[in-house]
Amino acid sequence: MKLHEYQAKVLFAREGVPVPPGEVAASPEEAGAVADKLGHGPFIVKAQVHAGGRGKGGGIKIAEDRDAVVEKASKIIGMNLVTPQTGPQGRLVHRVLVERAFSIEKEYYLAITIDRTTARPVILASAAGGMEIEEIVQSKPHLLITEAIDPVLGLMPYQMRSFFYQLNMEPALGSSFSSLLSGLYQVFTKYDCSLVEVNPLVVTKDKKIFALDAKVDVDDNARFRHKDILEWREYENTWEEEAARYRLNYIRLDGTVGMMVNGAGMAMATMDAIDLAGARPANFLDVGGGANAEAVANGFRLILSDERVKLVLINIFGGILRCDVLAEGVINAVSELEVKVPIVVRLEGTNKEKGTELLAQSDLNFTVARDMKEVTSVIANSGLADRARKGIKREALAKLSVIPE
Amino acid sequence: MKLHEYQAKVLFAREGVPVPPGEVAASPEEAGAVADKLGHGPFIVKAQVHAGGRGKGGGIKIAEDRDAVVEKASKIIGMNLVTPQTGPQGRLVHRVLVERAFSIEKEYYLAITIDRTTARPVILASAAGGMEIEEIVQSKPHLLITEAIDPVLGLMPYQMRSFFYQLNMEPALGSSFSSLLSGLYQVFTKYDCSLVEVNPLVVTKDKKIFALDAKVDVDDNARFRHKDILEWREYENTWEEEAARYRLNYIRLDGTVGMMVNGAGMAMATMDAIDLAGARPANFLDVGGGANAEAVANGFRLILSDERVKLVLINIFGGILRCDVLAEGVINAVSELEVKVPIVVRLEGTNKEKGTELLAQSDLNFTVARDMKEVTSVIANSGLADRARKGIKREALAKLSVIPE
Amino acid sequence: MSILIDENTRVVVQGLTGKEGSFHARQCMVYGTRIVAGVTPGKKGQEVDGVTVYNTVREACRAHAINTSLIFVPASFAADAIVEAADAGLKVVVCITEGIPVLDMVRVLRYLDGKDCHLIGPNCPGLISPGKCKVGIMPGPIHRPGPIGVVSRSGTLTYEVVDQLTKAGLGQSTCVGIGGDPLIGSTFVDILKLFAADDDTGAVVMIGEIGGTAEEEAARYIKESFPKPVISYIAGRTAPPGKRMGHAGAIISGGQGTAAQKMETLRQHGIHVVENIGEIGMEALNAIR
Amino acid sequence: MSILIDENTRVVVQGLTGKEGSFHARQCMVYGTRIVAGVTPGKKGQEVDGVTVYNTVREACRAHAINTSLIFVPASFAADAIVEAADAGLKVVVCITEGIPVLDMVRVLRYLDGKDCHLIGPNCPGLISPGKCKVGIMPGPIHRPGPIGVVSRSGTLTYEVVDQLTKAGLGQSTCVGIGGDPLIGSTFVDILKLFAADDDTGAVVMIGEIGGTAEEEAARYIKESFPKPVISYIAGRTAPPGKRMGHAGAIISGGQGTAAQKMETLRQHGIHVVENIGEIGMEALNAIR
After folding, report:
1. pTM of the model
2. Which chains contact C through at least 3 pairs of Cβ atoms less than 8 Å apart?
3. Across residues B398-403, what is the average pLDDT?
């Protein structure tokens, strides 16, 4: 679960990490009131959306005084912010964070995440602040400093000193840097974060340290420990949220083949197979390794409500769940809905034959693929394949039921 | 640093460990006021001294009502409480803890300490409550349950369940037992304890769990982290406290040979040597491995103010500190004071000869022992040896300076 | 032989009285696995399909000879269950549970460091030595005994691959689903080392996916010291760029976590990479011949 | 040979700029020890007796070849200093500091578990391989090169013993003060194992004291597999019963921590126990002949 900058900064402040004075506002009026509270300017007005590169898209503005804050806020709130990370569709801005602006002397990068290889939290820092971590790694790898944290010990003073001296900070900043870093680590562990990123961390001209930006991802698996933070979640009415309500793992993609698969790895492999056939998936949809008839029905409804979908591919490896039960679920779901696109079904596993028979006997228009090879052939010959197909032969079509083109 | 029961129970309450309602009182009147606050009886009035077995010595009394509380408190406060653990001299009682008394259904033993062998905190529990741990180990070792705590994990739920099921507690008590046990572990780690002991832990007839008694030792080395707890320390004007003021490690013993040694191991070896010679040390006094002239002088003064001392033995292995400097320190200290008992000095290490010469040349009455063998002989022949000497020969005396007998 | 589990495997099921636990324990028993005890706190003395339930793993171990645990407890209790099993001295611990917080796993894996205990999972289908023993939730009938070791980060995708192998006439020595979480007990390399020492395993099929650098580490190990043929498949070639957080983690280990990079690394290290999942059975057959 | 330190030892002193650190570093250099760097946070670039000071151990290790650390930092920072040295890859870490909280040591020792690092101490005089290298605070001149390994929980008492050995004509291979705290890095058994493998060590003098069960564990190890003669002394036979807490700790390990019990256990395991500290030099000489 990604937190907004203003939410992340609430956690920072709780754990003693210094952030610039400021508050969130949902309207230009509220933004003005925040400016009043903060006193004198200059101020900074920052769009609160889940995407980096906000400055480039016009989502971050300096405002000299209260009136400027109101003006900038009225432009930003309600805008569709497009940044390199939002994609072309952009993101609607609901809120801005209004903060006091400072004269910056130096910018740093600082982040905490989990390193899979060592299975430990790792702290990354660089004096090349303001750049994305990917850029730092590519252009200035020698400036990236890392420390893995042993869970036996937690963050140790010597590790904080190691960052401090390698970042070449002024000696007088030692204790405020330590309390900032240990505060961030505290945030990371206390709130089960998968990422805490401060970019930039700044030293101001008057020698103060601030987390100027703040990005926090909370581990979705640890939600049960953080009910309070869960309440901060803002629903954006996306397909993904709709799917999550049915405990389906859905990601919207840009193709035309609606697909439903059980198991994330199998779903990815199916996407890859669709691609190999020269077409593109409209979505990733994992109904779960132990999918039942209800999950299948819900997933089916979700896909069919997407008007971009020109063909539905159901690829289920039955496993423990019997294929005949699954086939019934699919038949029921299709019967309920007015289905105008072709449906390709591939069932494998226990009672495969019985399931396939049920599909064939139904008066619905299913195309049955017997294995993954056939799935690829069917897609390749569906008319949705708009790119070169890698070694998928048209002849395979002959073996299959007729597909409307 | 040992805490009183009432202090330990303050820490327990802070961490959510249930303790009986009650408060400490320094006078019978205060005790009565506590009874008023608690409402109805019966009450229990408990002497607050650093010693176990208080009940046997008359330091714990049941009081049916307020008047009885005042009466019992007036008897206990100011009494010299003698228990199997205080020694014959007993301990003066300054305060009592007044608590509501409960009908007990079952008593348990529970403790947390450090196991040297595994280098981990270990939790000990037994359904044989009310007995001392030594008794449990001797008479009912099969009833002792232990769990070592891995610092990577802390106390895990499965370990708490392990205690709970092995102690055969009623299922309904599960969650209150868990919060009690995790609270105790929290006390142990948060306050750097070397011991947390609850004996007995009780289940009352109305199915409540309480820490009925509480014993907490805080690691002296961790004092710097617990300034607040340090303020609870009560000074008792002992020799040990006096010595601690000069950073000397002193323990009062019951013999007649006052001894001053540098290094704890060496001091113990010297005590053993005195014992081998048939005499008994009046004290253990370690002036520190890196003893300087000032520490030696302070130690000397402390020993001489003990009128039981009939002979002073100074045994210093100079190490880094030169023997001549030490000899000067001793000479100065002796000159300042009116010394009526013989002084035996053994110096070893750097500049030993020069140090010995200085002692010999002073007009003070030193006996110089050249090595540990001579130390033993001198003591054996000092007239203070009142027990059989193990193989220490009188003849050795001939080699030594004359000792007044 | 086979690795980790065989005819001598004796299993305790943690969470046996739950819906999933009892269902899959029964399936394992039907396959022939010796489930000898169950553990559910507070349910001591109950029986599930003739299997006695205990309050703690240690208690179960005192009453029965047990060397393996199969865990179905909910995510919030799963870390505790894993440690309980390891602390009781079990050598193989299989955790099916999905959704364990990653910081719980940080501590669990640190705890297991240097301990003589193989953790499989979490968030995995478990493992099976066909014809001998099944400790997991995979459908038994698609498996056949044979010379192929299978190791995979995926669930149903593994069934797909195994099914193709079986249909191609390639039976399996042991199939291990190591799990899809960022932090797991046994890695590709850990399992490959066991396959290296297993006489019954002649070749290995390795199924990876996007994220992390486990496949790259496996590639290096295979090139340096794995003595048997390896056929691999990486899922997620067309997946949209993952969460950035995954990146930051992978960057540290010097990778990006993309399928393209993994496939390239595998090929560079001389490992056969299958592109079309539909062909993996036949390609394996050809590669091994 | 000799154990842990010798002519190839190259030392960083953590806390070099402090009073104790600078004094004892100088003494070590006078003895011939190669002190190549110092560490005091914030004092980078300073020099102490010609030795350059760095901010961190890793920084010092980048600038110099270092394999050993000698720690003099205050108790509240000492656990951090130990871990810093071990994390920098140093194989021998000697911590003189007295008064480290025991729960700090619990974590440090768990951290060091399985790491290729010998921690000596804390609260110890350090160690010396006479004629080769001294990494500690003991007086150098009382030592002589020779065949006796000395291992001791005590400080000045070790000097006493070494002095007697030297006077009896028994030189030492290495003398190790393992420290007097309840939790220490290297135990008697750890050091005995090194002496067992050291050709230059012909016999060992072991100095124990009341508290814990380290001597009992050493006795069992010696009887089972230590191939050289051991002469022992236990201090504290007449000490009044210790703090009860010490008892509870010792009880877990099945002992009482008394000197009498230790001496009896040692004798039962065939180890020569000296009763009179004044005789240990001569008794060692007789026992070894």
Report:
1. 0.92
2. A, B, D
3. 29
